[in-house]
Design brief:
By secondary structure, the protein is an all-alpha fold. It is built from six helices and no strands. Helix 4 packs antiparallel against helix 5 and helix 4 packs antiparallel against helix 6.
Length: about 130
């Protein structure tokens, strides 16, 4: 974008003001190396730990917990010999949630849809 007929792009102006006020140099960690813990281990685990400590959970984590809870119910109902039609209906509802979950979670965290024959195995993978 840039300049247009004597008009300065508002983002350019915001950045100039930010730099004039010290910019990143005012941040307490400026010029210091990152702690080793920030670069070690699983980045998703690091992010989730920090987010959880701050009282924030990403939406996909909330979906993951809900799917896990519902899968637990289906496994319990299957053990109690509930009707196959009721279980099939519940699995279809869970699979709708799995598709939503897969659309919002990181690629590495995506999961397969639930299948009737392997509910217990798939539940263990969602734990």
């Amino acid at each position: 974008m840039g300049k247009e007929e004597g008009h300065v792009n508002w983002m350019d102006q915001i950045f100039r003001d930010y730099e004039k006020d010290g910019g990143l140099k005012n941040n307490p960690g400026f010029g210091k190396p990152l702690p080793k813990s920030a670069l070690s281990g699983n980045m998703y685990d690091n992010f989730l730990t920090k987010a959880k400590d701050a009282g924030f959970l990403p939406l996909w984590i909330k979906w993951q917990k809900e799917i896990r809870r519902e899968l637990s119910d289906v496994v319990r109902l299957k053990k109690m010999n509930s009707s196959e039609s009721e279980l099939t209906k519940r699995i279809e509802e869970i699979n709708e949630k799995v598709r939503t979950y897969n659309g919002i979670c990181p690629t590495q965290m995506q999961r397969r849809e639930i299948e009737w024959g392997s509910i217990e195995v798939q539940y263990e993978k969602w734990k």
